[in-house]
């Protein structure tokens, strides 16, 4: 059964603009994008890029996550949904190493971690955005995005100050790649603005750009559409999809608003009170009685209109 | 050397250190009060202390009776506290904490300058009527003044605890300290609470100023006692009254012991930095501090 | 705000390097000819030294967001280190002593920056006081540092570069100007490099910076090192070119606060800001003393001057924090824009 649904996910994935799949940025050596050929064989797809095994986390007696199992295949858009306080953000913080789980392991590309090494995250090909905006307010949009490449800068400060060695090339390369991402996400018009001065929706998009510029294999999006208007949400959804298609990035996406993720995701995991209560395709989730109960069963919990 | 270790002398040093630690705690508590409610590390606490002591002494020297001078100084301190809250802190609401800190740094310059411009720069003696004759307790000599100071400080802490536990405004204070936005949302009157807290901090400054003034003489360097309170705060946490007390005792004791037993190896005078090193080393071993101040960030 | 920005774009944009180059040409070509010795001794030399110290602190505090209250300690470390290198290393050129002194200050900066790996905000600010008190104590206590002179006083050596004696007021001014210009240029290059962007990233959001792979710990220590290097060299200028005779007590906590005030008043995270702030800090006591003497006559003695200076300085800090949090630089840029706009619309 799991094999079949993985395959289904893959099929879905490749439906989106197969011709631009894994194109990457023009100047990028293709090697960074190969190695994961998402539209490949089913056997490949069965080896998850990210897997959570028995993750448990509690804060001073309050259980945030209980025995969470999750697997994410290369190239899929994987949504994790659930009502407020279901543990979604805790989960993404565990995956990105901000929290250390009390129990369980995180497998990234087959390597087991008790706690994911946050400072090595970028090198492992993982990028994330944050629920509350985490841009560098004092940097321009372009510099914010370029900072997403800081992890691979190898020139030291002296070289940069004097403009010698590999620093010039690196500087040119990261700015041009940042510029390309900005163009891709339709942000070129604001590239020189200070990030802190942008409207909320654009800041969210800049965060996506900063995460994408490193062309991560795994992209974690923590409520990328929170607080957006309906049209901004669908715009963001199309950017996420386009990003996956262009960079062959696997996307794990946390969302409160179920409606948006239905059309976007290949598979959806549903959390409630720190437990996974469903994990299936959007259609199956839509009809899952436990999911409906979690969201609608207690009607008063649904006051902010996040319905199915 | 170990064999003829003088335990009685050791205990004398230890007790002396603990008692002077109480004095550090007293200054530190003034910081904690303000930090808890408004998230400001009020560097001007030392300047307030100087201002209080200087005002009191100058009033007494001009023939104002002791009790009246005390009340008048307290009234002035409350007025200053409220004025600071109105003119400096309120316009800076929602600014980063470090900005507020720098503002209190500026404030300390103003208050120190004003204190000496108004009352002059000469050193005043301050006699609280406590004779500083050593008292013998169980074979150990203890300064009578130190005991008096410790008792006053303990009384002060007790008074503040009762105030915050049993009065309406005190309970509001605790609500604000827990969550400023929530407190605002349920309609607590923040300005009133802040004014009260600044008044309380003024009172603490007055008491600490008098005790330290009686010890060191009332003069400019009195405002430097903040520098003694800061490592206490690093150790005990900026937001914990208990931390301020325990931290003060720890710093006071270790500082005195170090000065007496290892100071000579360093050529003496190590008290200017020793407390900071103790606090830093402690934090390196136990990053969450004495009472586990919350340093975890939410992402 | 948006309107002002668009005004700017319509104004004739001069290349960025024009203003600093013109300023330098004036500072080298004109000032030495017309300046009085009072101008050099009382205004320009302290301005250059404090401005450079402000640049150093701004890298640490303004850009990297790590508040330091111990700047004077690094000035002292630089001054005393240069003195000792000059005294004890035979044949070392002056410039060598200065660079080595900067390196010593940087090393001390790294040591006292170590707490920044664990402490944040106020906890870190307070822990930098340890540097302040420790260095001051060590320099006073161990007379080796001052070659056994009484109370730790040191006298500056003769200044000369490449056989050119620079002992007069103008010579010392040119000496200071050259060092300050070079280091300021390098600092400017630094803050616009990837390393500079990493500083700002850590200041603005440390967690996000860590997650996108900026080496946070290394970058923080680097900020401490570079900042301390620059402040250390500023200390050398202070001691060798400006005062010529210094003692450890001259680098006390008040001096540290003074440098912090310079960057608050001038503008945080701005290289120019450090010089704006330093100019104000140097000129305002002189102005205040003239003004006070003029208005109050004899009542305005040095004690009163000292106190009123403290009051006005404190008030300035608070006023800037409330009214112009981006400092004199922001004020200056706004005025310049208005002027340009007015000039254009005529």
What does this structure look like?
Chain B: This is Branched-chain amino acid ABC transporter permease. The complex is a heterotrimer of chains A (308), B (299) and C (346). Chain A is α/β, with parallel strands linked by helices. Chain A has helices at residues 2-15, 42-45, 88-95, 141-146, 157-162, 167-184, 200-212, 230-247, 258-264, 282-286, 289-297; strands at residues 50-59, 62-72, 77-81, 103-108, 111-113, 126-128, 218-222, 250-255, 267-272, 275-280. Chain A has two domains: 2-125 and 214-300, Rossmann fold, CATH 3.40.50.300; 139-209, no CATH class. Helices cover 35% and strands 20% of the residues of chain A. In chain A, α7 runs parallel beside α8. Residues 1-21, 28-45 and 298-308 of chain A have low confidence and may be disordered. Chain B is mainly alpha-helical. Mean pLDDT of chain B is 84; it is low at 294-299. Chain C has a single domain (36-345), classed as Orthogonal Bundle (ABC transporter involved in vitamin B12 uptake, BtuC). Chain C contains 15 helices and four strands. A two-stranded antiparallel sheet of chain C has the order 1-4. Chain C has a two-stranded antiparallel ribbon with strand order 2-3. In chain C, α6 packs across α7 (121-141). Chains B and C meet through α4, α9 and α11 of B and α7, α12 and α14 of C.
Topology:
The complex is a heterotrimer of chains A (308), B (299) and C (346).
Chain A: H1 2-15, H2 42-45, E1 50-59, E2 62-72, E3 77-81, H3 88-95, E4 103-108, E5 111-113, E6 126-128, H4 141-146, H5 157-162, H6 167-184, H7 200-212, E7 218-222, H8 230-247, E8 250-255, H9 258-264, E9 267-272, E10 275-280, H10 282-286, H11 289-297
Parallel strand pairs in A: 3-8, 3-9, 6-7, 7-8
Antiparallel strand pairs in A: 1-2, 1-4, 4-5, 9-10
Chain B: H1 7-38, H2 45-61, H3 66-89, H4 97-119, E1 134-137, E2 140-143, H5 144-166, H6 168-178, H7 180-185, H8 190-216, H9 226-236, H10 241-261, H11 274-285
Antiparallel strand pairs in B: 1-2
Helix pairs in contact in B: 1-5, 1-6, 1-8, 1-9, 1-10, 2-3, 2-4, 2-8, 3-8, 5-6, 5-8, 6-8, 9-10, 9-11, 10-11
Chain C: H1 2-10, H2 18-29, H3 31-34, H4 37-63, H5 71-88, H6 94-113, H7 121-141, E1 154-155, E2 160-161, E3 164-165, H8 169-191, H9 194-204, H10 206-211, H11 216-243, E4 245-246, H12 253-266, H13 271-296, H14 302-323, H15 327-345
Antiparallel strand pairs in C: 1-4, 2-3
